[in-house]
């Protein structure tokens, strides 16, 4: 589903990604870990073209990310992304946060977009909050809205960039529960996270990045041992 081949990236003279090669098959959940500043976030942002890279190739379901002919808004709709800081539209209601891209990017009719949004809000346990605005919700609730918003586009894969790192500890599990359910349903996922319990529970593989280099890439049983 996602093929990353010999990807290198520089910021000026600083090489942030060094010849990274890995892949995520359909239905796999790959967890990316490593020290702060090692390039984890940059790597997943390259997958949906939020960052450019100078060498190598990335394809998503056969579409080459670096190809200038690739329709980037469509690619970003098909590969949902969830950020550390939620990145909801603060001036839109929760419902409209879930409908706007369905209407503007996918061209869905308002009724269909609202129906889809309502189903997804129910699924993440937030039906009662549809008319509120993001800043009226807790961090954990906002992050569940962000996941629902990405799912509203019927993505073929989902990218998560430290989705629980900005949350108060008591809200971490409500977000991880949604992610575990998605994983068990067979969603293809790449997740940058320090939540090793999540990795043990659902990861197909754990990738360790150090100073821009993939230095380890194996199943969680091997990564953590079997104890
Ligand atoms: P991680 O997600 O592993 O914490 P990042 O991918 O965010 O790491 O960043 C990797 C490195 O690249 C860091 O040293 C960071 O400071 C640097 N970096 C990130 N974005 C930029 C940028 N726009 N310009 C220059 N350096 C950057
Ligand atoms: P994350 O790891 O969650 O992406 P960061 O705090 O590393 O967040 O980066 C936040 C923003 O700042 C990003 O847009 C990144 O590109 C930019 N950035 C990070 N490090 C640098 C840097 N050394 N120079 C310039 N921009 C940077």
From TrEMBL:
The entry's keywords: Amino-acid transport, ATP-binding, Cell membrane, Membrane, Nucleotide-binding, Transport
Cited PROSITE patterns: ABC_TRANSPORTER_1, ABC_TRANSPORTER_2
Membrane-topology annotation of the record: Peripheral membrane protein
Family that this chain belongs to: Belongs to the ABC transporter superfamily.
Protein name: Amino acid ABC transporter ATP-binding protein
Keyword Thylakoid: no
GO-annotated molecular function: ATP binding
Major place of residence: membrane
Residues annotated as domain ABC transporter: 2-227
Subcellular location: Cell membrane
Keyword Chloroplast: no
Organism: Azospirillum oleiclasticum
